[in-house]
Structures are given as structure tokens and as C-alpha cells.
Amino acid sequence: MSLLGSLSPASIPAEDEALRTEVRDFLAQELAALPAHVRARSWNGVDAGFSRRLGQRGWLGLGLPAAYGGAARSAFTRYVLVEELLNAGAPVALHWVADRQSGPLLLKYGTETQKQRYLPRICRGQAFFCIGMSEPQAGSDLAAVRTRADRTPTGWVLNGQKIWTTNAHHCDYMIALVRTSGTVQDRHKGLSQVIVDLRRPGITVRPITDLSGSSHFCEVFFDNVALDPDALVGDEGQGWEQVTAELAFERSGPERLYSSIVLFDEWLRFVRTPAGHTPAAIRLAGRLVTQLAPLRAMSIAVTAKLVRGDSPAVEAALVKDLGTGFEQDVPRWIADDLFSRQTPVPVELLRTLDTVALVAPSFSLRGGTRDILRGMIARGLGLR
After folding, report:
1. Which candidate, 225, 219, 111, places its Cα nearest to that of 158?
2. Are 299 and 319 in contact (CB under 8 A)?
């Protein structure tokens, strides 16, 4: 109960809500030609031009200081923007990680040189980052990573492998969790993060094709990759502290609620027609909304803690675990409804269902597997 009690109800301030209408109008024009089954791939939608148009409007790096090209707004402002982007099914894949994690990470831990070099470009949509955490031998057990960065007279040399690195083949940089000292047996000790320019010699990126035919996951190999002396983020050995704070951003936002929302909206559009309106569908709509509403309230409460300067890692894990469960329920329950009908169903709705159903298994993997998250929650509740 202590964990649940730490999430006090919160509201998005009016000055942040004021952005919502402008974003909706912008997206209505930008996405007018995209069908629902394309918009349903919002997380994996790659469109550099769209990302740069967000940057031109000042909608990337919203929480970063103006001195680095940001808008100096609160996490609530970004919450509103992200909620609208995902609800509309905008192609967010390229700028997603840099805006959500890499920028705030570099602002907190980076050197002044790193901030000046990367943050303005992130805000303009001109520098795209991916995350190098998971490895084949480690999975979600990040303390077991083996990839190493060793000091040299001219900087660092990097060797090892990362996997499940989303959109590495489209990105400019990776922030990688590596060992800079010790061995795997040292667990959290000796872990650091480094900035890797993915154009450096010795780097091989291999996309992995998933069930849906997408190739957004990648494995990345490092073979004696030379890194500059200032590639290190923060202090050596600070990597575990950094990724813990970073994952709170990744796990807590509206992106953990809305991966299936384009499908939900397309289904609702059908349910509101005479052909789609059935008592069973109305009950299902109520069931889904009554789950989504408290999850959104929890996500906003975690955002409020971030605004206060807290690091709600366990609370974020709770939102992520429950939220991805909901996201996976949406396509399953909608499929049950549609395939129990005796009347025709719109083809575009079926295509959207197919798209979401094929990618839904990944929802409970990205950002930490269910088992890892539930272990964190159990410790937060004092159960282990």
C-alpha cells in the first residue's frame, strides 16, 4: 500500500493543456492522408521530415533549457504533446528516444561540450538517438552486460554486442551501457554510459524482422570501435544510476497506454454505426474506458513526481506493467468482438487489427520485461 499511496492524484496544469488544440490541428493536417493501419504503427513510423517539422514548431526538447534550444516547459507539456501524437498515430520513431531520454540524460549528466553539441540538434530534429542497453546474454538483466569500453591514450575502444536496439539502422547515435571496469560478477559496479557515433568504423547494424514484417529491432556489433575521450556520459561507474533514472522516463509516460489506441478509435468508429452497434460492443467499450481512465491518472501522477524532481522508478514500473497489459488486451478483446459477428466488418478496421495484433507481444518486452518490472514492484511494496 505504501507504493500505491505514493501516487497522489494530479492534474495537467491549464497552461500545458492549452497546447492540445494546436497540436490536434497540426496533426489533422499532417496525417490526413494516412489510413488507420499505417497510423497504428506510430511507434515505428519513420519520417525524418515530420520529426523536423515538430522541431521547427518548438515541440522537441520541450523540457530542455532555452540555452540549448529547448522550450523550458514542464514534463506536463510534453505529456500533452505525446498523448496527442500517439492518439493520432503520428510517426514518432526517429525523434522518440532522443526527445524522451537522451536529451534529459545529457542535460543532467553530460559535460557542457556534450550539451552544446547534441541538445540543440535534438531540439531541431537533426540528431536521432537509440538506446544500447540489452544484450543477448543479459536481456532485461542490465547489470549483466558484457560490452566493454576500455581507455586508450586517445580515448576509448568499444567491443561487444547489443540487441533489441530499436531503430539503430535509422539513428545517428547510441547511448550505450557498457563495462568500463570489473567483470559481470561485479554487477552494478563498473558500469558506465558512452555516446557512440553509429557511423564509426567497426560498427555493424543488423535489423531483425518481426512477426509483422517490420525491422525496427536491431542487433548492433562493436569491433574495436574508437571513441573520443569525451564519449563518457557523466562519471565513470555512474551508469547504473543513469539508466535507473532514464528508465523512469521510458516507463511512465502515455506511451505505455496508447500503443493500441488507433485500433480502439477505429473500432469505436465502427461501433457508432448502425451496423456495428451491439450491446456486447457497448459493454466492451465501457470495459476498456474504465481501465484506461485510472491508468492515465496513474501516469499523470508519475509525471507530477518527475516535475517535483523525484525519481519514481518503482511507480513507473507499475504504470508500465499495468499499461502494457491493457495495450495487449485491446486487440484481443476487439478481435473477440469482431469475429463473433455475423455481419461484414470494414476492411480497414481488420487491417488495423492485424497490424496491432502482430506487434502487441512486444509491448510487454520493450522498456523492461514483465518479470523484471514485477520484481521491482514487489520490492517497492516490501514483499521481497
Report:
1. 225
2. yes
Specify the amino acid at residue 324. T
- Domain with 253, as residue range(s), is 241-380
Residue 213 DSSP label: S
Average pLDDT, the chain: 91
Selecting among 83, 219, 246, 250, the annotated active-site residue is 250
The Cα–Cα gap between 346 and 227 comes to 53
| Residues 159, 184 within the same domain | yes
CATH code assigned at 32: 1.10.540.10
For CA atoms 242, 247, 252, 254, give the dihedral sign: positive
Q: List Cα–Cα distances, 6 to 252, 381, 384, in angstroms.
A: 14, 11, 19
User: How far apart (Å, rounded) are the C-alpha atoms in residues 321 and 80?
Assistant: 21
303/255: higher pLDDT: 303
146 close to 182: Cβ distance less than 8 angstroms:
no
- CA-derived radius of gyration, the chain: 21
CA distance 15 to 74: 10
User: How many whole angstroms separate alpha carbon 25 and alpha carbon 265?
Assistant: 18
d(CA 160, CA 162): 7
Positive or negative torsion for Cα 220, 243, 171, 109: negative
- Give the pLDDT band (50/70/90) at residue 375: confident
Residues 344 and 325 in one domain: yes
Longest dimension (CA), the chain: 73
Confirm whether 241 is a catalytic residue. no
CA dihedral 256, 257, 261, 265 (to 10 degrees): -170
Provide the whole-model pTM. Answer: 0.90
CA atoms within 13 A on the CB side of 174: 32
CA distances from 347 to 111, 214, 354 (A): 53, 21, 11
Nearest to 109 by CA among 198, 197, 250, 232: 232
